[in-house]
Task: structure prediction
Amino acid sequence: MATNSPFPLRLTTLRKQHGLSQLQLATTADCSQRHISFLELGRTRPSRDMVQRLSLALGLSLRQSNELLLAAGFAPIWRESAYDAELLAPIREGLNFMLTQQEPYPCLVVDRRWNLIQANKGAAAMVAFLVGPLAPGQAVNLADALVAPNVLRPHLKNWSEVVGYFVRSVEADAAADGTTETATLRDRLLSYPDVRQTMAAASSQAPGAPVLAMHFEKGNTALKLFTTIATFGTPQDITLQELRIECFFPIDATTKQRFEAWASARTQAEPRQ
Result:
């Protein structure tokens, strides 16, 4: 194998990131430890099939699998479609159904770095109430909006609890994908005022509730919501594998009534057909 090939180092790095010994990786990939050793030393060139088996054994994402194929000198096999591509029209239709079904409560579609792709009316109503309406086509990064000092933070009463949990999830993403872009997002979030100090001072006390809800408050209005995050079960496209669908649910009757009132007001304001 060519001495300047990036594959040996990339394989070694991925194996160590996943906390596997050469023997453990070899067992999962159905090969010998000697073969893994030779691959990491650059003494053996992997076949395309072997790279795919290693990707599965390491639990790599489709993007990472493509990168490992490229490092080994093979063409990538997984497609990355534009979200608005005609090929993804049935997927967008399904997501639109989910967004609509979630009404009057918020639902968002984001990419793997929390860039907003799509939102329903319930989400737009909540954002407009808290920080004002978004301009059409305005780029929004939900990670920045949550962690930065001047967007959602002034209205998020339990920001210190939520920010620690959220930033740790981004740290886990950065460690898992090993990309400069996700690492840059992590570092940017950690650079915001009070974030590192808040995470360092996080209480080790056992949680009293079954889920960490987000407690927003503005004026005399309080919103308490918990969230769920869904992903595609069998993605064959990088774009789809990296999408997250986040649904918000009220945790008390007051919050439920507030969203129902906003939905009712929208209905009354819409022109009659």
